[in-house]
Amino acid sequence: MTTPSPDKPRRRWSPVTALRNSFLTGLVVIAPIGLTVWLIWTVVGWVDSFVWPFIPDAYQPSELINRSLGLEGEDRIEVNVRGVGVIIFLLFTIIVGWVAKGFIGRSFLAWGESLIDRTPVVRSIYNGVKQIAETIFAQTEANFEKACLIQYPRPGIWAIGFISAPTRGEILSKSDPDEMLSVFVPTTPNPTSGFLLFFDRKEVIELDMTIEDAAKLVISAGLVYPGSKEPMPKVLIEEAGKISGADSAARDDRTNLSKSA
C-alpha cells in the first residue's frame, strides 16, 4: 500500500513580493521606452549643437521670439527649441541631394573627388567614409532574380540556388561559356550563408516557384514544399510503408533477442 505524498508547501503571498514583482514588470516596460527617448533626445541635441553655430544670431529661435514679442533687456527670455536644428539639417541635406543630381552638381562633385584623389591622407579617409555611406544609405535594393535548380556539388546531385545576376567583367571574359550566371547556393537550415558559384546558363534550370517558396524549401530541409497541393505519389507511400515495416520488424527482433538473453 502506497502512502500519499505530502502536499508541497504553498508559497505565501506577501506585500513585499507583490511590490517587487510589480517593480520588475514596470522596469521591463519603462526601460526600453526611456532609453529610446533618451537616445533620440541626445542625438537631436547633438545635431542642434552642430547646426546652430552656423546660423546667424539674428535668426536664432530666442532672438526671433524676443523680437516678435518686443522684449528687451531683462525681459528677454531664453528658449531652447530642440529639434529645429534637425529640421534645418534635413532641409539642407535635401537641397544638396537635389543639386547633386543635376548636371552642374555632378560636374562639381566629380571635380571635387578628382581633387581629393590627389591628396594622400584625405583620399583614404574620404573613400572609406564614402564606401560606408553608400553601403548604409544605398537606395537601390539588390534582390535575387529567380530560383533555380543546379547540379552541385557534382553531376547527378541537385541543389536549390538563387540567380543573382548575369556574370560580367573579367570572370566572363576569362571563362569558356559565352553566357554565365552568378548563382547563390544557400545552406540548410540557415539560407543566409552559402556559396557563390558561376554556371553556364545552359546548366541552370529556372524554377517557377518564387524566391520565398524556394527559401522555405531550403529552411525546412525539404520537408515543406510550398504551393504544392498534390498528394504524395502512391509509389513513395508504398516505399515509406516498406521502410516503416522493416524498422518495426528489426525492433521486434531486437526485443526477442534481449528477452532470450
Widest sheet: strand ordering:
4-3-2-1-5
Class of secondary structure makeup: alpha+beta
What is the general shape?
flat
Report the helical percentage.
40-55%
Radius of gyration: 34 Å
What does this structure look like?
The protein is α+β, with helices and mostly antiparallel strands. It is 52% helix and 12% strand. The chain contains 8 helices and 5 strands. The protein has helices at residues 15-51, 61-69, 84-101, 103-117, 120-136, 170-173, 211-219, 234-260; strands at 146-151, 158-166, 180-186, 194-200, 205-206. The longest helix has 37 residues, at 15-51. The mean pLDDT is 76.
Which keywords apply here?
single chain, 261 residues, alpha+beta, 5-stranded antiparallel beta sheet, flat
